[in-house]
Design goal:
Blueprint: H1 3-42, H2 45-78, H3 81-115, H4 122-151, E1 156-159, E2 162-165, H5 168-172, H6 175-205, H7 210-245, H8 247-254, E3 260-261, E4 265-266, H9 279-282, E5 284-285, H10 288-294, E6 300-301, H11 315-342, H12 352-361, H13 364-378, E7 383-385, E8 389-390, H14 391-394, H15 401-432, H16 442-449
Antiparallel strand pairs: 1-2, 3-6, 4-5, 7-8
Helix pairs in contact: 1-2, 1-4, 1-6, 1-13, 1-15, 2-3, 2-15, 2-16, 3-4, 4-6, 6-7, 6-12, 6-13, 7-8, 7-11, 8-11, 11-13
Amino acid sequence: MDVLSLSRLQFAATTMFHFIFVPLTLGLSVLTAYMETRYVRTGDETYLKMTKFWGKLFLINFALGVVTGITQEFQFGMNWAEYSKYVGDIFGAPLAIEATVAFFLESVFIGVWIFGWNKVSKTFHAVAIWLVAIGTNLSALWILLANGWMQKPVGYVLRNGRAQMVDFAAVVTNPYAIIKFFHTVTSGYVVAAFFVAGISAWHLLRKNEVAFFTRSFRIGATFGLVSSLLVFLSGDFHAVEIAKVQPTKFAAMEAVWETKKGVGMNLLLLPDAKNECNALERLCIPNLVSLLAFHTPDAEIKGLKDFPKELRPPVMETFISFRLMAGLGTFITLVALAGTILSRMKNLENRTLFLRVVLLSLPLPYLAAQLGWIVAELGRQPWIVYGVLKTSQGVSQSVVGGQVLGSLVGFSLLYGFLGAVDIYLLVKYAKKGPDNDLSGIINTVTVRGA
């Protein structure tokens, strides 16, 4: 493999591994803050136990997320130096703000929250975890503003062979990035919701702490239902934006080859060369692609054949990833709806078949989130900055394949070890169930955070 392929593989591997931790951090920080707020407002000790139990799992995941995220930015200088030189004046700004504002906010108040039990007031302690949650989600905002600019570059001029920012406001209000932020964050909330519901289902199947885990399940299922619906809503807006500014990606998502009005959606199979919509043969819904793209059933969709071959993204991979993501999202929403209803009835612990379904569904939101990133990044190819800089032009010129391969192997071994540690700790403390304090992991989290 050449340097370009190895560099792309390394960045994909490290990013997707890091993104295992990010969605759970986004959502579980909010759920933990909600539980502690309920404790402060009601004085119900069950909510305090919930805060400490789910907060412990949040801390483990947060620590691993920090470690795996640090290496991401180094790759821009190591493997993607030409990209960094070309767009660093723009891309670096939101990343710098993320590090100096959002990460500083969450890292300071995570310390207050861990060590502040019985040292600060209950109200201030709850405020601390809310500030952690806000900081975590702000981090996602600035990172996605940077990524959104790569998807739809705005507020810049090309000068002296480099992209230079001329309108910071345009960068931070980029519609593509804002919609992408809401879509990504709400998908993270779904991950956290099913994490809570899935672990609660495991304990309910064993009749452990039934009252505690029934309440946790209800919170997780309700949060998951609301978040799933928001994912679909933001996804609809995102599809409209993609169709407008990234027509090649949209055409690849739906495998539209010929420019045509009133394009139907093939639910499972790749459409034929003429984009014929045969509901019986290909499970196709007439006009649905046009309706989703421009909210008009007879809207024209530009086909891939209208673009040069070298500017088309990988169609099969993008098409299948999009279908799997949407299909999993639909299933997840239905499970969350059923969970929200059943958790409000009596004897949830006796609904063993449904609890097993929820437990087995725990990894599905993770998979859907990863597929979403595959659609976003693979569908953008061959551009690293859409319409401005090709991926092949952004790779470092001074590195050789052996160097990239060596670092890829090193990252894989390191991340594999960290992943094993994370799974071990999460399983250990999830199985243990609730207790009354955070002792036992404070030192672990402190060492890793350092």
